[in-house]
């Protein structure tokens, strides 16, 4: 499909890649000064793998040497960035000013399901009832208020009832034993009552402390969905209904209502009808300079859309994605994914352009420069993606 139809403007892959370069702060002239600017531009940074947050920020900063101290400042001192549960049960890092929008638009629905599931599983196992769980919850929040931040182990020392265990899915092949602390802290997270705090160890550690969530106003869910969609389309538009449904995890009726509420404009894409925010229909020119980027596993740009052919050739996917659909480290050239990269045990950042993806010497020089840039600010730190992919493991091996 292509071209305009009935006055609806066609936006092709080349223009979508130009928008991506500029709005996702990847072209050198578009790079940001602070982690807050990066998060604001992208709306959300994937936080399932702690290292992804820092690597995604570093790839977009004009001065990547400040990546770790400045991201630490934003997350843990100034708390201008907040790590919390968001869309699709996933942990993200959001600008603090958008936590209320995320909570009302997405968190409330997920939270209701999570609490109901916990109570159902506890009842089936003969564990204590909802009143008991409420007491434990209130006590846990009081402990966090007193301590400021605490690990799950520290919380269980203060509130021993968190150690209670119950059997989940008894008699089934996936039967397991859950502790109240694990399940309850997850529920409190999606309910917007607690957030992830400073990790134990370095910025690559996945062992987090918990902290009380910053206070935020309660918003109307429909209005919050419209606001979230407006921010996302500003960063990632154009996108199809399928892209929006996938990214948000909402029902298609919620997506359509939010699109109508913000007055989104329809455009023609190779995939079909897409949408942009009002006032964003005019052409966007590509950056004057060519650009390269090494983006981490789960980077929000690589994971931003459900339909990806306009920036990622289908034949590259087996090497770049794991079986659950998590993307690994990616090498970008002028808005397209052209290969993968990895860090070896000696600290060297190695990369490879996919077979058949000859990009030319100029591109290879820029990619090599980005690899050296990344190696420079990583220093002695070693990073292994939480979700390994075939391409990344092959490079390391």
UniProtKB/TrEMBL annotation:
One of its GO terms (molecular function) is DNA binding. Keywords: DNA-binding. It holds the Pfam family AlkZ-like. InterPro entries: AlkZ-like. It comes from the Bacteria. PANTHER family: LMO0824 PROTEIN, WINGED HELIX DNA-BINDING DOMAIN-CONTAINING PROTEIN. This is Winged helix DNA-binding domain-containing protein. It comes from Streptomyces phaeoluteigriseus.
